[in-house]
Design a protein that fits this description.
- The complex is a heterodimer.
- Chain A is 36% helix and 19% strand.
- By secondary structure, chain A is of the alpha+beta class.
- Chain A has a four-stranded mixed β-sheet, with helices on one face.
- In chain A, helix 3 (65-78) runs parallel beside helix 5 and helix 4 (83-97) runs antiparallel to helix 5.
- The relative contact order of chain A is 0.20.
- By secondary structure, chain B is of the alpha/beta class.
- Chain B has two domains: 3-32 and 310-418, Aspartate Aminotransferase, domain 1 (Alpha-Beta Complex), CATH 3.90.1150; 53-307, 3-Layer(aba) Sandwich (Aspartate Aminotransferase, domain 2).
- Chain B is built from 15 helices and 17 strands.
- Chain B has a seven-stranded mixed β-sheet, with helices on both faces. A four-stranded antiparallel β-sheet of chain B has the order 13-14-17-16, covered by helices on one side.
- In chain B, helix 5 (107-122) packs parallel to helix 6.
- Classes of the chains: A alpha+beta, B alpha/beta.
- The interface between A and B is medium-sized, with 22 and 22 residues.
Chain lengths: 161, 419
């Protein structure tokens, strides 16, 4: 349980208090809504794709601290990167959050490793993954996604709200 | 009620021996992450005392066979114990006859039984069903299914800012097309105790039958279905110290006998040919297939356990816990209680400014405190109060004042983390 407490470390609380890239984009080329019906978290990710490059990104919505901080750090990390880079990160984040791989073995995860602790909290894994899940949907021009959709690309473990 | 019973009821409930009660619940000895478990999620599911666990073991090790089938010793024993459990529950809720007590898999199943058996038979196009904003999804969705199929409409009783139903609005919802009323006895999300006796009387004056969702009431107060005069009363075993997978539908015999079958299969028939099937009488008519026999017998043991403590004593103890927790929480800056109706039972929903309920739940868990966070399967209530979710502490007879203190200390810790 000390691990769960450690999850609420300063960097996550800081991003929860002052989320980066929080808001909307005036000229978004892509966007998607993510929803976790089990807990009611809702998040919208907006992208401005310049060719393959993510020129702009913003998010808004209502969610818990883990979800909001994850979205904030995600937007800060992928801004300026290519779609391919973003998909690589989405994959690495999923592997880390679901406990399949250690952050040490994930070459691009960097400071996102602060979320590694969610793997010990099965009901919170989806909170951390939802923004990434939504980013994946936006990049691939899907209008909406859900942690419970039949085609859930994250295949995160089921956790009740 | 005899004069003696009335006199006894007016006496203050005897104090319970909390240490002795806690010793009956092995799971309460658990530690969670090095902290003593503080289990405050009883509205979701309560814990089971040794007496019920041992009854399950005795049944399974010395009495089990299928019921209503064999002529051998074990089948006769299992059948007798199953029917004895039914009679225990009959006495517990003061049903007139044991055949008015139907075993289901839980409250949800019991309500679906009524929606199918009564609703789909007697509700038609243009008819109206009255529900309330406080209902659990299990007392909404089955009626939406009936309404959609039949072309009927659902009318919803609003609640005020305290979480109390507007009885005035309820009475105004009735029209000549009103065919059914479904209302919770106690709100699972807010703890409001609804004035169901009065609501039932009003509906009956207009010839409308009423189903009471008693899932959150039966574990916390003495229930007398004849006094309430409800037509149907549904509740679950696992919220009242019994096993999961078992619940009860009480129904007035005259109504049950007019309903259509719910599930078809063995036990609910007298004879079957491919030309014609003759159905069995109630309650068997509604109990197709092999039921959860052990769970039913376990629920009988749970009823014995709660009766031995006394429902009035349980209610009094839980009220003390609720009053104390409410008082403590009211004094905390940044904490808002959601659901402040004058008449409440065992449930305390709350919001902490600037902290999502999920984060509250995770952080309280690090202190060993188990609460429910989420929409509580009552999304219309959440919408009414403008929150996506709440944190909910819910009490049972084995909870203590020091556990309330642990909850309050836990909330302070959450606030400290998020400042």
């Amino acid at each position: 349980m000390a691990d769960a407490r450690a999850l609420y470390q300063e960097v996550i609380l800081d991003h929860n208090r002052k989320p980066r890239n929080f808001g909307t984009l005036a000229h978004a080329s892509h966007q998607a809504d993510g929803h976790n019906p089990l807990c009611g978290d809702r998040i919208t990710v907006m992208l401005d794709l310049d060719g393959e490059r993510i020129a702009g990104i913003a998010f808004h919505g209502e969610s818990c601290a883990i979800c909001k901080a994850s979205a904030s750090m995600m937007t800060a990390t992928v801004k300026g990167k290519t779609r391919g880079d973003a998909e690589t990160l989405i994959g690495e984040f999923r592997e880390m959050a679901t406990g399949k791989r250690e952050p040490d073995n994930l070459p691009h995860i960097g400071r996102l490793a602060v979320f590694a602790g969610v793997r010990d909290l099965p009901t919170r894994v989806k909170c951390a993954i939802l923004p990434w899940h939504t980013l994946h949907a936006a990049i691939n021009s899907l209008e909406s996604t859900s942690t419970e959709a039949a085609d859930d690309p994250m295949h995160a473990p089921i956790g009740d709200a | 009620m005899t004069a003696l019973q009335t006199a006894m009821r007016s006496q203050p409930a005897p104090a319970i021996d909390i240490l002795r009660i806690r010793a009956d619940f092995p799971i309460l000895e658990l530690e969670v992450g090095g902290k003593p478990l503080v289990y405050l999620d009883n509205a979701a599911s309560s814990q089971m005392p040794r007496q019920v666990i041992e009854r399950l073991v005795t049944y399974q090790t010395t009495q089990h066979a299928n019921i209503n089938r064999g002529v051998h010793y074990l089948s006769e024993t299992a059948t007798a114990e199953y029917e004895e459990a039914r009679r225990k529950i009959q006495r517990f809720i003061n049903a007139r006859e044991d055949r008015e007590v139907i075993f289901s898999s839980g409250t949800t199943d019991a309500i679906n039984l009524v929606a199918h058996g009564y609703g789909r038979k007697f509700i038609g196009a243009g008819d109206e069903i009255i529900l309330t904003t406080l209902e659990h999804h299990s007392n909404i969705v089955p009626w939406q299914m009936v309404a959609e199929e039949k072309g009927a409409a659902i009318r919803v009783v609003p609640v005020d800012d305290t979480g109390e139903l507007s009885i005035d609005a309820y009475e105004k919802l009735f029209t000549p097309r009103t065919k059914f009323v479904g209302v919770s006895h106690v709100s699972n999300a807010l703890g409001t105790v609804n004035p169901v006796k009065r609501m039932i009387a009003f509906a009956h004056a207009r010839g409308v039958p009423v189903l009471i969702d008693g899932a959150q009431a039966v574990p916390h107060m003495a229930i007398d279905v004849q006094d309430l005069d409800c037509d149907f009363y549904a509740f679950s075993g696992h919220k009242m110290c019994g096993p999961t997978g078992i619940g009860i539908l009480y129904g007035k015999a005259a109504l049950l006998e007019r309903m259509q079958p719910y599930k078809g299969g063995g036990d609910m028939i007298l004879s079957v040919t491919f030309e014609k099937t003759t159905y069995n009488a109630i309650p068997h008519f509604f109990e197709a297939g092999t039921p959860p026999i052990a769970a039913a017998i376990g629920l009988g043991a749970a009823v014995d356990y709660m009766s031995a403590i006394g429902m009035d004593a349980i209610a009094a103890h839980e009220h003390d816990l609720l009053d104390y927790a409410t008082e403590q929480m009211r004094r905390m800056p940044g904490v808002r209680i959601i659901g402040t109706a004058p008449h409440k039972a065992a449930v305390l929903s709350f919001a902490i400014d600037g902290v999502h309920p999920h984060d509250v739940g995770t952080l309280l868990n690090t202190e060993g405190v188990a609460v429910r966070t989420g929409h509580h399967c009552a999304q219309p209530v959440m919408q009414r109060f403008g929150v996506p979710a709440t944190s909910r502490a819910s009490f049972a007879v084995y909870n203590t004042m020091s556990e309330v203190d642990a909850l309050i200390a836990g909330i302070r810790t959450v606030q400290k983390v998020f400042t």
